[in-house]
Design goal:
single chain
């Protein structure tokens, strides 16, 4: 990857991060509300995540990876597959953090102020931690699989120069 390619990837990472912040807000708000109001844990995460995925595709295909997007069946299917895999990783991490590593209990034992643990209890802390890790996995999947250049794209870009 040349200097221009590295610079482009860096800016894509920044854009992806900004979109990811919005996706994370959408995901988190929906997940936390459903978890808090209905007591759902995994279903809340699935519904919140799906709302974030819809936002992600719309913004990333039209802004972050605009030059690479094809809006064809391969792109849409690979986007859905990458996000289903990331959702699976997220749910697995949530289970690992809560049930195996007991991070929910650890979080609550930190002696944080009640207003913090009232908003972000142990389960929600596990949700948030899995979300942070999955942001990185999701970027890599989108960059390398969904919005990747084909060999023809490089030839077309060289012809434009």
């Amino acid at each position: 990857m040349g200097k221009n390619g590295a610079k482009k990837s860096f800016f894509q990472l920044i854009k992806f991060g900004l979109v990811g912040i919005l996706n994370t807000l959408i995901d988190t708000v929906i997940s936390l509300v459903l978890n808090g109001v209905l007591g759902w844990y995994y279903p809340a995460k699935i519904i919140g995540y799906c709302a974030g995925v819809l936002n992600s595709y719309l913004l990333n295909s039209n802004w972050t990876f605009r030059a690479e997007r094809k809006k064809d069946a391969r792109e849409i299917i690979s986007f859905l597959i990458v996000n289903l895999v990331v959702l699976g990783i997220s749910l697995g991490l949530m289970k690992l953090f809560r049930d195996a590593l007991l991070l929910d209990a650890w979080w609550m034992s930190l002696g944080l102020p009640a207003w913090i643990t009232g908003i972000i209890d142990g389960e929600r802390a596990c949700m948030l931690l899995s979300t942070v890790i999955c942001l990185i996995v999701n970027f890599i999947g989108n960059k390398l699989i969904v919005f990747r250049h084909s060999g023809n794209d490089k030839k077309e870009m060289d012809a434009v120069k």
